[in-house]
């Protein structure tokens, strides 16, 4: 089913162009982009006050995730700006490592973040909000034409984007007690996934968990270690001028002890994870505390950060201690953590189990293969994390626009953006656990840096058309300033005159042996852009330009090699697989490989190669098969011609 | 090469032994119909083809009903054969006429002639072989010695693959730990100390080095020893060449400079192939431009040899030898032949040896080289034992100094190229770790090294690798 195939029975009138189901981080980006691109859009959410709510940790960004927030910002997404506005602690992770793996993370004021997002969505022209629940989709054959509400009324639309998060058939676990719901205080959405299941969609269960929230006045802060953020700030958005806007706060470090672990070990039989009540797979990289103690039995302590959720509230988030143990057990073990001896728990930790659709069932545009006019984004596709959700929501929105205007979908390459890696991974490999982005997932990591986001994506962004004229100008201006500085560094030579040599001594670097360009000088490890600017006299610029140019120059050798590898990979990435290829006919493929390839339907050999369980020999067999087919066709054409 | 579409379901046949007259020839039939097609031409009807059970029968021309030859038929059931398909091996008497008649008969009954390399291609496609093994079959076919065959067999059994896989696991371990260090740095865990990585990677590097060192062994066992004879004109190079060859290949005369070009001959000695290279005499002031070129080629030829034989006239003072004789000579790979000893008294020999040592000592002053007495031989072309004496010494000398007979070895230039690359990249990784380079760059180099390693064992393919491998196969293999 191609993106452009319209259903036979198109209703005569639509209430909306686009309906977005769910007001989380994916839904926000989806509905903002479609409405901003001129489509009448309806956002259906079960709770208006929870738009943009941070259900778990109160922070945005992190390794690889920070990269995506920046990409989103350049492309015209919302998350970066609001995270900047509501930042209460800033950190650049891995700042001691190389430039490609530095990641920005801000702790955001959770209340202000959600309030700000709700405000943006509510005041957006062309965008309407309905507080209700979607029970089912309006389906005509395999075409979706809108949604059905609990009172069975229908709202018709040309496109529906599902961003239902953890709500589909959501079940919360508090110890052995279970409550239907997608988040504490919110109902689950029942019916939708069963309807889609009837289309043969593969629906699976995942699990996620959240820690307890504590009252700040019940904590003995003197027993914890204060942790401040960084004071060199690099906001997410290239448009953020004033940063930070809010007072910056500290977090507090404490640790579990043997006593904590003893209590948890003794109560493992009351954990729904350990007695088999939860079937869903949880994230291996973000395990619950009971998981950590079980799996890393040799460690006698685990650290935890106590993070204030908001300047406006008394709640403290207990990072690293997510749990689904019963409330009384939580009370017991929390009190063994230094500082928490008399802690008052405002909300206990719990686990949520929910439905997701195996993501190999969607196209790279995030459109469903089985149901036309339907897009899916966020946790429904098996991901975890606000940033992963926002990135998909954005792409689903942009591709809904492309679809409605009968244009080619926006597909970002793995060498262009982490967002491209995200979609390609999901669609190609699928996932059996909540998918989180890591820098190691990007094989072209060295060119996917935070500092060069603008260089990578400015042109794509202009093509999407979401940025205002002034913001486009700003982007092009930064790009131009970088290019001009770089060319001046390449062109400007300094010669070993006594004045210059004295300067070298001052900069604690070796004397010049011969005439040298500033670019060559900058390659010296001890020299920074600020140093070489001395020789240019008039140039003054912000880190946005200086840092990016410095990195480009200093690591040009590696960047060059990475680009070469990208070129090499291109031959496979551009080797198109005929859409009518029958994998079971290809000699040399195992049954398992044929089955996987048939399900994923990769567009190119590059994509086929990344499907897990497809061996390199299979790629070779496909090359031979496809080339042989071509030869056969050519020969028979020739024969026809001769006759 | 077009093994793909259209041929998948064919039953193919070909002569698997070299074409020509010999004791026996083997014809191989592979594919789903190999049993039926073979049965059609056998004298005894309704035979049961049992895997790995050979039987004797007569192979008939089904048109004339006449017997072509008495044959030994050996069937292999699918999954238990070289190609993974049903295979029949038909051994007949070794004659091109018989072989062609049998092939014609098979093709009449539904077989297709195999394309060069197609059997091995099928084996590879059916997961019967990995790339290294496929290459080693090639080595086995081309191997010129028993040692070489043994080496190729070892590779066929997968010993090199096993060893490389083992090394690869270590590299992957390091890479995984570096990656984890990057992506989980927030969690406050030191995943692995750099010193641990360094020592592990240095071990890997050593394994690479050991394997790379075996390349020469692999190549010699496969392609033989290249032995270059050089010296001044008229010291008896060509005579010695003839003694070694046992015939009169080179033109021998008393006029200096008879051998103007490089002459190559192959001989078999102790089941090892020796390629003897006779070069133009090295001298100066030659007015003949063609001879001048010959001299230059002689010096160049010596650099590509496994062993050099430098021939000196023992009847003349050694210090009068032209200086070019010793130019750019790798002494570790050189044996000195003091020729024409039949014209000397026996008690003159120790003095000659001392004289040569003194000369060599004076020309190699940069690094102290421990002179090996085994590298000097006294010969005369007038004695028939000379061949045994010279080649025997070369063989022993090479085995003692350069051979790695016991270990698994690398024998293809492709494998060596990839391993060399993997080795050099590891060097960068280790240097990066020591200089605290950004982890993502270290990971980048390590991944690159891993990819080279994976290419060696054929885990990462591109068009060229497979093309390269299959192109080298001759028909029927």
Give the topology:
The complex is a heterodimer of chains A (643) and B (477).
Chain A: E1 16-21, H1 25-36, E2 41-45, E3 59-61, H2 65-75, H3 79-85, E4 87-93, E5 103-108, H4 110-123, E6 127-131, E7 136-140, E8 143-148, E9 154-162, E10 171-174, E11 177-180, H5 192-197, E12 203-210, E13 213-215, E14 225-227, E15 251-255, H6 258-266, H7 289-295, E16 303-308, E17 315-319, H8 327-334, E18 345-347, E19 350-357, E20 374-376, H9 386-404, H10 418-429, H11 453-464, H12 469-491, E21 493-494, H13 498-506, E22 516-517, H14 518-522, H15 529-533, H16 543-554, H17 556-573, H18 591-600, H19 605-609, H20 616-642
Parallel strand pairs in A: 1-2, 1-9, 2-6, 9-20
Antiparallel strand pairs in A: 3-5, 4-5, 7-8, 8-9, 10-11, 10-19, 12-19, 13-17, 13-18, 14-15, 15-16, 16-17, 21-22
Helix pairs in contact in A: 1-9, 2-9, 2-11, 6-8, 11-12, 12-16
Chain B: E1 12-15, E2 22-30, H1 34-40, E3 55-61, E4 66-76, E5 87-94, H2 96-108, E6 112-113, H3 118-125, H4 131-142, H5 146-156, H6 159-183, H7 194-213, H8 215-223, E7 225-231, H9 237-245, E8 263-269, E9 272-278, H10 289-303, E10 307-313, E11 334-339, H11 349-363, E12 376-378, H12 386-402, H13 413-434, H14 439-456, H15 463-471
Parallel strand pairs in B: 1-6, 7-9, 7-10, 10-11, 11-12
Antiparallel strand pairs in B: 1-2, 2-5, 3-4, 4-5, 8-9
Helix pairs in contact in B: 4-5, 5-8, 6-7, 6-14, 7-13, 9-12, 13-14
